[in-house]
Write a structure and sequence with these properties.
five-stranded mixed beta sheet, 243 residues, 6 helices, two-stranded antiparallel ribbon, 18% strand
């Protein structure tokens, strides 16, 4: 009886281990399938956004109206902001968090190259510390960056004026994330606050800052300085990003 009990005990342990291994394997396969589907979704979204970008570029090329071309170019930049994020997630395979350094660096360089022909003497300076955020805050950050860079080229580097555009990203001691864009242009006009009300770009920046639970501060000269401070997530500290 003792040998029989021992055999049944060993058999039960073997059954439990086998069941556990099968369960673990099934979970790994389900996780791999989910990651594959997410990757495919981001890839398709990126492709669709690139198609929209192409349409906007073609429409801008056909238009004879400078104002229309400008609006279409700004729309194109906003779509590119979202497209690059989905490309970043697809390439890295990390879907829960966004490496804000890599994302904003790529965006800043793309936008700067797009505007460079009109201001060949302008320089881009990047001071970016590793930070990760959720995708719900990554996209607004990219859109904010686009609007502020476009604003600098419209007002700071007109007529080929020489100067520097600086983008700063860092985590503050209190856990907040600071995103700053400043330039060495002539600074904000005296009636900036009045103009701001009627500026779609500045309205977008203000709305997007509120969307991520942040605040927008506009600093005095020299030049123009825009700062957005926000928490990386609800009740959590910002985490260093992966390079």
């Amino acid at each position: 009886m003792q040998k029989e009990a021992s055999w049944w005990g060993s058999s039960g342990i073997y059954h439990d281990v086998t069941l556990r291994r099968r369960t673990d394997q099934a979970l790994r396969e389900a996780l791999a399938e989910k990651e594959s589907l997410l990757k495919e979704i981001h890839h398709r979204v990126k492709n669709n956004l690139q198609v929209i970008t192409s349409f906007l570029r073609l429409d801008a090329g056909r238009s004879q109206e400078p104002a229309v071309r400008l609006v279409l170019a700004e729309m194109q930049g906003r779509v590119v902001s979202m497209s690059v994020l989905h490309e970043t997630l697809y390439r890295t395979g990390t879907f829960g968090r966004v490496d804000l350094v890599g994302y904003l660096k790529e965006l800043a360089q793309q936008f700067f190259r797009a505007h460079a022909p009109a201001a060949p003497s302008a320089r881009l300076s990047l001071d970016l510390s590793p930070v990760e955020v959720g995708i719900d805050k990554g996209i607004p950050c990219g859109l904010i960056l686009h609007e502020l860079i476009s604003n600098s080229f419209k007002h700071a580097f007109v007529e080929g004026r020489e100067g520097e555009l600086r983008v700063v990203l860092r985590q503050q001691e209190n856990g907040e994330i600071l995103l700053q864009v400043n330039d060495t242009g002539p600074g904000l006009p005296p009636d900036f606050e009045t103009r701001r009300v009627h500026s779609l770009g500045m309205q977008l920046v203000s709305d997007l800052a509120r969307q991520i639970g942040g605040r927008l501060d506009i600093g005095p000269g020299p030049g123009a300085r825009f700062e957005i401070r926000f928490a990386s997530g609800t009740g959590e500290q910002a985490r260093p990003g992966k390079r």
